[in-house]
Amino acid sequence: MFFFLSIRLSALIMNIKDKIKTIIVEKPLKLDCGQIINNFPLAYETYGSLNKKKDNAILVCHALTGDQFATGLNPITKKDGWWSYAVGPNKSIDTNKYFIICANVIGGCMGSFGPSHINPETKKVYGTDFPVITINDIVNAQVNLLDHFGIKKLFSVVGGSMGGMQVLQFVSNFPEKTKTAVPIACTSSHSAQNIAFNELGRQAIAADHNWSDGKYSSNNSVPDKGLAVARMAAHITYLSKKGLQEKFGRKLQERDDLKFGFDADFQIESYLRYQGSVFVDRFDANSYLYITRAMDYFDLVKQFNGNLSNAFKNTKAKFFIMSFTSDWLYPTQENKDIVIALNAIGIDVGFVEIESDKGHDSFLLEVPDFLKALKNFLDKSYLGN
Amino acid sequence: MKPEFKVISTLIKKESHVLDIGCSDGILMEYLKNEKKVNIRGIEISKSKVQNCIAKGLTVIEGNAENDLKQFPDNSFDYVVLSQTLQAFLNPENVIKELLRIGKQAIVTIPNFGYWKIRLHLLLKGTMPVTRTLPDEWYNTPNIHLCTIKDFVFFSKKKKFKLSKSLAMRSNKVSYINNVNLNMKNLSTNLGIFLIEK
After folding, report:
1. How many angstroms separate the CA of residue B52 from the nearest CA in chain A?
2. Assigned CATH for A2-191+299-383
3. Which of A53, A130, A315, B56 is the most buried (most CB within 10 A)?
4. What is the ipTM, given to two decimal places?
5. Is domain A195-292 in CATH 1.10.1740.110, yes or no?
């Protein structure tokens, strides 16, 4: 079993080196925790092509468990990219028109500098010695890709959930580096409920004895049980009660009656177990800790002393914000708070709440009203260039 | 396009900053953008209409003017436009106050319930009037605070806001309303258009 696992892991690492584009960020980056990092890798992918004027670039920011492979076939997981519904030829984020850049966040596990990397000082995997990173750090690392491609100003920066937080932080940090901004299903300040769910996930990982305080890389065993439970719990928060009820109800899993035991009697149980099991194949437990922490620390309101408007006072970017009716993780009101803060200082902002039963996950799924609004906003704003 | 939109446009200065409350499919917004090169935003309660506006490249917020005007600072627009919706609010008095807070001026148009055809309908038929501008039955109408041109003029005096321009409209004919002809205009026209300020 261990033997098998290590083969699988080394095969994965070889694969990763082949298929992942990275830049090495030489410039020192001072993290919010105080540490300074430099010469670190930032993994990215691009779609479409950059025009001569270099004014058609869109930075797409991924959510908690996403990566740089926004669309097409993810060469590592061999599955469709996480935003295949939205990004592609003639789709909402049209690869025929725009040059799309998507970076793996630092702290992540798809090639960017993260806890599974080797610490050059100790020659050991960082694990929990990796510095705690924030959304601010993530964005400050990503902006280096603009320099790499010689892009002075993006046409847009777009993202949902944690990707939306990055959008807000990006505009706040670099008010003149984008023409438009589309934060979707997000918040300007992570709520107690959101922190609570993230903590549940982290504790599930920590409770797996394979986690070994984050030093599992030297043990030939990974805390996949804990990570799977973390994913299962999180997955529930991405769906709506109505959506779950309609899809699963009390339907039984390949059996005619209850078995009076603790196997997965119900389809919903089997579904969640499956979601947990496929997740551990593609995600690193320590990265999960670090990225959820970054989300929890996100509080743009506090960063600007209780006045969110001040985060955006230097930008002329045009905003378009969307939320979903059944999203209880990042509810409409939290999205509207951002609209209110922008209106308070006269920034050009549009807003629509999309009707959907698919919960927070709506932004990743085929929700025609959402995809249409995103496309219309981008294409019309681009025409108005 | 509603005939009153042309009149509204004549009241608006070029390149000004405008908010259209209840902007529907954005027809007035587009018209004002083209005619007056205004910087214009809209608020609309219907999701599908907001979608239509986005498809036209207009900046629109899904929202309800009764709750969502609070977010705009004082005097953030040169004009706030409210076309034939004042009568649908729970608290029109408050809405007018908000319009005059966030806008330096406001343009309010009202379907005139004092129009002779409406009076005659009620007088002769004895049922709630149903007309082209007020097409709903009493039980499904969103118009819960209907008023006449005269009511609105009295309202402005009582609440001490200024009517900078008062126009009456029937078919495509526009005329001024003044103290002398108020009773006549109140009877002979079916729409009032007012430019108001504090």
Report:
1. 9
2. 3.40.50.1820
3. A130
4. 0.92
5. yes
